[in-house]
Design brief:
43% strand; Jelly Rolls; seven-stranded antiparallel beta sheet; 7 strands; globular
Length: 125
């Protein structure tokens, strides 16, 4: 029988910031959760859109054309190719929907970049 998942509880249980974890998959996409605070860094995904949904807290997504502010229960899709920088002034829990080909920090590699293998680790490990 398929497992029922509780995204908010899973995100709240994470120990690492900016380290998304895959909690489900559908077709060619992963559903991920993350606990974030501070700044991830400017990057873009040339071929993939990226959906951000705020489970708890507030998230600002800075883009060259301006920024969007998301509160709990709100979502925004960053279109493919758009440079963006997610920022959370306080701890924030997010749910992401991304194609399986989406690299964590897109065209940039930083100390916050997580590989797909790291994102697929079992929760609690």
């Amino acid at each position: 029988m398929p497992a029922v998942r509780a995204p908010q509880q899973i995100a709240a249980s994470l120990d690492e910031l900016w380290s998304p974890r895959v909690i489900a998959e559908l077709d060619d996409a992963y559903v991920k959760v993350a606990k974030v605070q501070g700044t991830l860094g400017w990057h873009a995904h040339a071929d993939e859109d990226e959906l951000f949904f705020v489970l708890h807290g507030r998230l600002r997504i800075e883009m060259e054309a301006g920024a969007v502010e998301l509160g709990q229960g709100e979502l925004y899709v960053v279109p493919k190719g758009v440079r963006h920088n997610p920022v959370a002034e306080q701890e924030c829990h997010i749910l992401l929907v991304e194609r399986k080909s989406t690299l964590h920090t897109g065209d940039q590699v930083t100390d916050k970049t997580r590989s797909l293998a790291e994102q697929l680790r079992e929760i609690g490990s």
